[in-house]
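Q: Could you fold this chain for me?
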Amino acid sequence: MSARVVVALGDDLRRRILRDTDLDRLAAAADVVLTRDPAALDAADICVTGWDTPPLPPSSYMDGARLRLVAHTGGSVRHLVPAAALDRGLRVTQVAAVLAEAVAEFAVMSIIAGLRDAVGFATALRSGEPWADLAARPPGRLLRDQTVGIVGASRTGRATLHRLRPFGCRCLVYDPYLSAADATALGAEPADLPRLLREADVVTLHAPVLPSTRGMIGAAEVAALRPGALVVNTARSALVDGAALLAAAARGRVRVVTDVFDTEPLPADDPWRRADGVVATPHIAALTAETLREQGAVTVDEVLRFLAGRPLEHEITRAAYDTAA
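A: Sure. Below is the predicted structure, expressed as structure tokens.
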């Protein structure tokens, strides 16, 4: 009997991520069912999940359940699969490595655009500000001559460091799980968080949300930032005291580029939409046409490896679950 694969993505997301050729590859190796009905998981061997998939019901991973693999087309699986499911033998794979490339590119773009105040200049030009007044504005800053602090040597943090190296800027990295030797190999200086915040002209966040990292950039840490520092958040809003950061931006003490928020979608009246000193984008750092296609292809590759009894390339082990995003 063929293995049953439940693709638990909404129609729109499934069409964006899984091409017909990907579904055909799945269908050639398994019985494929397209549904978000949680009850379908009781008869599934594998479940393909996405950003819009609801949390797995306990019946799907309790002792004796049929489900053996969750293949997630996104990054974090914490909202879908509890640690208890892995303890009972459920295997989980995801495509964070694919997303990291797009997010790192977006982070570097945000750093350069923030340092040069590209959005501010473009907005003022569109609003009709005289050319001479624009030319008299304070000039931007050269990335080469800045100190960039990377908070979190995650896949995305490392990919961001890799992309920063050609610019010649000094990089500091804070990650309690990263050795000094590994930091040096990445082209960065290891630093504790207070030193990083004190010395960095740019702080870019790439840490997972864990009990130890939730609110790690609190009001005291925001106050410790260098005057004029640029803060870029493409990770998770829960890492930061948003009210403290927003207030610092409103006072002109720091500038912020953020792609993540406590409430998403962001309400129409939310102050992040129109705050001075802030460039806000709607959680699109990982969203490119190429990345979406790769998410689907890599996920299907993982499912086919599993069905063939081959090692998975993107598995979240029980040990890694505790420190993964």
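A (continued): The domain at 98-280 is CATH 3.40.50.720 (Rossmann fold).
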